Amino acid sequence: MQLIPCPWCGPREEAEFHYGGQAHVAYPADPSAMPDEEWAKFVFFRDNPSGPFAERWSHSAGCRRWFNAVRDTRTHDLLAVYRLDEPRPVIS
Amino acid sequence: MTDLPEHPDFLWDNPEPRKSYDVVVVGGGGHGLATAYYLAKQGITNVAVLEKGWLAGGNMARNTTIIRSNYLWDESSGIYEHSLKLWEGLEEDLGYPILFSQRGVLNLAHSLQDVRDSVRRVEANKLNGIDAEWVDANGVKEICPIVNISPDVRYPVLGATFQPRAGIAKHDYVAWGFARAAHELGVDLIQNCEVTGITTAGGRVTGVETSRGRIAAGKVGLCAAGHTSVLARMVGLDLPLTSHPLQALVSELLEPIHPTVVMSNAVHVYVSQAHKGELVMGAGIDSYHGYGQRGSFHIIEQQMAAALELFPVFARAHLLRTWAGIVDTSPDASPIIGLTPVENLFLNCGWGTGGFKATPGVGDVFAATIARGKPHEYAEPFALDRFTTGALVDEHGAAAVAH
């Protein structure tokens, strides 16, 4: 089973976590002015790369806090773990 | 030392790719091979199927082979029932055995809401001319005696929908049958040929870059299942898809004990017994995005717990092997089929956990869409623009595996 390093609790088993999908998806700044195409992008379209991907996780069976991670979707390796208010780390 | 038996004739050639084709189909799985076959059948034979690995070595070799058409909405009934009807004549059409076995499928209901949804779906199926019935717990026991219908379990079986014409087929044979038939009609099946780029000029597709050189194409059809997002990005096209590992497993060979197919959406296991005797079981998808073709152990653990509660007789069966395929799930659990903003580039993706059952149907419908340059009537509701217009075909309740 994969170990996921919670920023607050340290490495814990994957089964303690809940997946939250793509990170850094901001709510529209001016929703009422947004055309349908952009609403569709916001609601339904998410990045789906084969490679590093910034995503959200919640340590739902532990501290219950959300955090972000960059994970390689090919190998499942967690390349970085960081707090929600931090920018996505640059991964070389 | 005795001689080894003579090697059987190969079912298809391995030609060098030509410089140009009328149609290039990307992906040599069930959907790609079926698309090429139905294109060739209507006279479009200057066609290549490009496969980055070996033919039908991706999801086609990794699925649990279940075939059914008991979906809720008219749009889905159209395409899945079209497919089931093609399955019923496919062995004769291809002249190749596919071991299609119409042993029926039970979709179990475990709560009052499950029961209401199931009965609604049965009535919807009947209105669409699809065979379906509601059976209570005793009816489940009659159809599949090894199901535990005791009320004293966490998720008791309250009944099930039953589609008698549903069943399974031998996935490898299906692929080989399509490959052989397409090859005989003149289609080039090119293995070990990875598409690394899609070339366009003036908003129109002109060909593909591959690991074996550039191939010009009048039209390009994408049939790459879990990897479609990666291909579409090559022309700057975003799709409402996320790719996830979907796991399955088989037991050792057992005597025939399981006469039908049993699926449970609520506890997340679906089981049939293969022709040779293995119990074939599927799980739910792993929650996270992934392309690694392996999944999480705890998903299998949950799946086995569910299987044992439903089928106590499995307790002593040995697990033989597990694997994962990469499925591309869409927000409404329905596929995306049809045209793209790039002229002559066609899309067939988003089948999520249930693409196998559609193999002949989508082959036929997608081939017609490519040939005509406009959507076949069964493809029309599954256009990419439904995510903007809001005309979704929400099949989460009938998809049987949560996406």
Automatic annotation (TrEMBL), chain A:
Gene3D superfamilies: Folate-binding superfamily. It holds the Pfam family SoxD. GO terms for molecular function: sarcosine oxidase activity. GO terms for biological process: tetrahydrofolate metabolic process. This is Sarcosine oxidase subunit delta. It comes from Amycolatopsis mediterranei (strain S699). The lineage of its organism: Bacteria, Bacillati, Actinomycetota, Actinomycetes, Pseudonocardiales.
UniProtKB/TrEMBL annotation, chain B:
Coiled coil: none annotated. GO terms for molecular function: nucleotide binding; sarcosine oxidase activity. Residues 23-66 form the Rhodanese domain. Gene3D superfamilies: D-Amino Acid Oxidase, subunit A, domain 2, FAD/NAD(P)-binding domain. One of its GO terms (biological process) is tetrahydrofolate metabolic process. Its EC number is 1.5.3.24. NCBIfam families: soxB. Belongs to the SoxB family. This is Sarcosine oxidase subunit beta. It comes from Amycolatopsis mediterranei (strain S699) (Nocardia mediterranei).
